[in-house]
Write a structure and sequence with these properties.
Protein name: Oxidoreductase
Number of strands: 7
Pfam family, one: adh_short_C2
Organism: Sphaerotilus microaerophilus
Radius of gyration: 18 Å
Largest sheet: 7 strands, parallel
Structural class: alpha/beta
Number of helices: 9
InterPro entries: KR_dom, NAD(P)-bd_dom_sf, Sc_DH/Rdtase_CS, SDR_fam
Helix content: 40-55%
Shape: globular
Strand content: 5-15%
Bound molecules: nicotinamide-adenine-dinucleotide
Family: Belongs to the short-chain dehydrogenases/reductases (SDR) family.
């Protein structure tokens, strides 16, 4: 599933990779880049939604859709090679693909644990490792890892999800420290709750009510509000920002009122 492009005519145009870009926050991040004349590669495990999204974006010169499971090293390597072969460079990588399982510890199976850690932690490790040499060849780049407020604060039901996001925040700092020396900045965004398919899946009525009460702005964020922060961190406006975690969470972390 891909389109063709003419790299020679657009070699100076910047390129962003957005994992999990077929829908939700990732799709909004892709739109942010497209509005600023980037070419965008969407890597996603869901071939059907990816195909539909690529058709809806209807911009074959700027959009490349690649079916990829970010937890699988061979698929990540193939997606990286294909993106570089067609677009010629990679300037920004947004490690957005994620899955959520909200269960008590006693009901979280080892398979749940592996699925969540595999996508949310192994994915950003593998994608950044594969893409960094391409960025380096182009003179540098920016990576943004999509973490979560669940990686900043512990709460019930999130043993796998929260642990994966907390580890991703530390991975961000490790990557920033090492890759900063070759001109690659790495930052994380920790969104508060956002109304997406993921939220529909795991946010019960009780969770929604808790979020409403503990978030000073008393509401969910929008995909646009998250994409704006991600885009800023990828842009030259953030050229001296490296290794940071920006919570886009309506003040949840600052208020310090815990979830149950
Ligand atoms: P979503 O479920 O709407 O979209 C996630 C996308 O990732 C989907 O297109 C899915 O197919 C893709 N994906 C899942 N596993 C993948 C894999 N192994 N390889 C490639 N693609 C894969 O979710 P969303 O709410 O848009 O979440 C995006 C990111 O934001 C996730 O990392 C999530 O943890 C994080 N986040 C979401 C919220 C929220 O409330 N929605 C809050 C904080 C953080």
């Amino acid at each position: 599933m891909s389109n063709s492009s003419t790299p020679s005519s657009s070699a100076s145009q910047r390129v962003a990779v957005v994992t999990g870009g077929a829908r939700g926050i990732g799709l909004e991040v892709a739109r942010w880049f497209l509005a600023r004349d980037y070419r965008v590669a969407l890597w996603d495990i869901d071939a059907e939604t990816l195909g539909r999204t690529a058709s809806e974006l209807n911009d074959a010169a700027h959009v490349l859709a690649i079916h990829c499971d970010v937890s699988q090293p061979d698929q990540v390597d193939a997606a990286t090679a294909k993106t570089e072969a067609i677009f010629g460079r990679i300037d920004a990588l947004v490690n957005n693909a994620g899955v959520a399982v909200f269960k008590p510890i006693g009901q979280t199976s080892f398979e749940d644990w592996q699925t969540v850690l595999g996508t949310n932690l192994n994915g950003p490790f593998l994608c950044t490792q594969a893409v960094a040499p391409v960025m380096k060849r182009g003179g540098g780049g920016a990576v943004v890892n999509i973490a979560s407020i669940s990686g900043l604060r512990a709460s019930t039901l999130r043993v796998a999800y929260g642990t994966s996001k907390a580890a991703l925040i530390h991975l961000t700092k490790q990557q920033a420290t090492e890759l900063g020396t070759v001109g690659i900045r790495v930052n994380a965004v920790a969104p508060g709750p956002v109304e997406t398919e993921m939220a529909k899946l795991v946010h019960s009525v009780a969770i929604r009510s808790d979020y409403h009460d503990v978030i000073p702005l008393n509401r969910y964020g929008t995909t646009e509000e998250i994409a704006n922060v991600v885009g800023f961190l990828c842009s030259d406006a953030a050229s001296y920002v490296n290794g940071q975690v920006v919570a886009a969470d309506g003040g949840f972390d600052a208020a310090g009122v815990g979830l149950p």
